[in-house]
Amino acid sequence: MQAEIVGISFAIQPGEAAYVPLAHDYEGAPAQLPREEILERIKPLLEDPARVKLGQHLKYDMNVLANYGITLRGIRYDTMLESYVLDSTATRHDMDSLALKYLGRRTTHYEEVTGKGAKQLGFNQVPLEQAGPYAAEDAEITLCLHRTLWPRLCEQPRLRQLFEEVEMPLVPVLSAIERNGVLVDVALLRQQSGELLEKIAAIEQEAHQMAGEVFNLGSPKQIQNILYNKLELPVKAKTPKGQPSTAESVLQELALEYPLPQLILEYRGMSKLKSTYTDKLPELIDPVTGRIHTSYHQAVASTGRLSSSDPNLQNIPVRTAEGRRIRQAFIAAAGNCIVSADYSQIELRIMAHLSNDPRLLEAFAAGEDIHRATAAEVFSVPLEQVSAEQRRSAKAINFGLIYGMSAFGLARQLGIERGAAQEYVNRYFERYPGVKQFMENTRELAKQQGYVETIFGRRLYLPEISAANAQRRQYAERTAINAPMQGSAADIIKRAMTDIHHWLQQSSLAARMIMQVHDELVFEVTRTDTDNLCRQLKQRMAAAADLNVPLVVDVGIGENWDQAH
């Protein structure tokens, strides 16, 4: 949103590239062509959809060009996404990593020409003697990468289709969402920061009383000393250096029996909310637009899911009151409201589709509450007699098994004996034999071919699936079961986003997509257009995939994101 163009580099054949400097303004910089005039001359070329464009991470270029009133069209190839679709786990997908892996070439890194840290120069300050070769290399490497990666992609028709029909069309959609931005209520965030500070201080005081001494709750070393040396709590796991661990998973286990680890977890949670969100969000507001503009990453999560940064919208907790309060600070402009559209239990529906389990298909087709239906099956009680506690347990089983959770993990989550948890798992598989069969087949297939696929053919390679180390192998097996569900859900929402984006562009509705978080899309819309938008969202999101069970979309409306969700 704030980057300025310093120059343009391009390449049309390997081994050759050019750099056009436009705004190097260091002392003694040579005269350059005027930026505005050059951009005006090059604009028709960049905006022509018939002229095919190729780049590395083109969404960024698209956003920067938009700052100059240029809409980049004709985007056909992006080497970052070619690499990502080909094998999401083989390497990082930045240009330097790709050049080394696929071309065996070591490139000049950005810090080598600009320096790093506090003394880092802006590119406008880099002398042309260094800037030219550096910038030209970027374009030439991209062209060579495309010529290496594209033929490999073409050998896999389903991967090529995924690239052309899902990933590339999403680039302008994500660019638009980023540029739309979202409004936040700064006064509310400041108030929340103050309240969190008070809660953190109260937790510290209570923890100090419990420990019988003052210690720093932010210091793993001091926590280790208090928990294991002073209070002599059992050591559940050790660090690689052989010290008793204070990792979150260890503290969660200890918290089932002891109060102090629970307090430390609460302290960590509140501190993270304060530093990452209530303190940080006001600093991220763009001075020109007055909004926050997150960055979406298309080539980070191995399963196909999108991630985001500055701020990370995917990590705002929805289950805690404090997390929900942060969502209250995401607001609509005057005269508008927030609409949230969320896929209901999409991964369980994908499990039903992939496993073809008759009872699971039946429950979804009948529009039953799937957790209540599972509870009725597992606890052998009539549907109408399922208690809230039984439904909660069934929900943990439903989601736990999708993520490959063991009976031990389930026992820990539900706070019950391991034997009882194993009994639940056994009964679940007796009632849903199709699910058990699907899991066994998936594990076997992953071992044979070394990868699993989503409904749309996205692949996740699992190099550790036959590892000698049992822990690594079991992790790969759990991933093999979960990836087709999580990856298919990601593919479905990407298809829905692209469809909705094009529909909104052609409609007369005053609405815009402002966020994507996991299985949810968030919009800002004028009050008069709300009903029309909600109706269309339900239809379009449900039509994004043709499954053996209905895709159900929950739509909510509110003054802020929390109200709408």
Provide a short characterization of the protein structure.
With 565 residues, this protein is an alpha+beta fold. It has helices spanning 35-47, 58-66, 79-86, 95-103, 110-114, 128-154, 157-180, 186-211, 220-230, 248-255, 259-278, 321-328, 346-355, 358-365, 370-378, 388-402, 407-414, 418-431, 433-449, 470-506, 530-542, 561-564; strands at residues 7-13, 16-21, 53-55, 75-78, 183-184, 295-297, 307-309, 330-331, 336-343, 451-453, 459-461, 511-517, 520-526, 553-558.
Commentary on this structure:
The chain is an alpha+beta fold and 565 residues long. It folds into 4 domains: 7-155, Nucleotidyltransferase, domain 5 (2-Layer Sandwich); 184-290, Taq DNA Polymerase, Chain T, domain 4 (Up-down Bundle), CATH 1.20.1060.10; 307-346 and 490-564, Alpha-Beta Plaits (2-Layer Sandwich); 348-484, DNA polymerase, domain 1 (Orthogonal Bundle), CATH 1.10.150. The protein has 22 helices and 14 strands. The chain has helices spanning 35-47, 58-66, 79-86, 95-103, 110-114, 128-154, 157-180, 186-211, 220-230, 248-255, 259-278, 321-328, 346-355, 358-365, 370-378, 388-402, 407-414, 418-431, 433-449, 470-506, 530-542, 561-564; strands at residues 7-13, 16-21, 53-55, 75-78, 183-184, 295-297, 307-309, 330-331, 336-343, 451-453, 459-461, 511-517, 520-526, 553-558. The strands form 6 sheets. It has a 4-stranded antiparallel β-sheet with strand order 12-13-9-14. A hairpin with a 2-residue loop joins strand 1 (7-13) and strand 2.
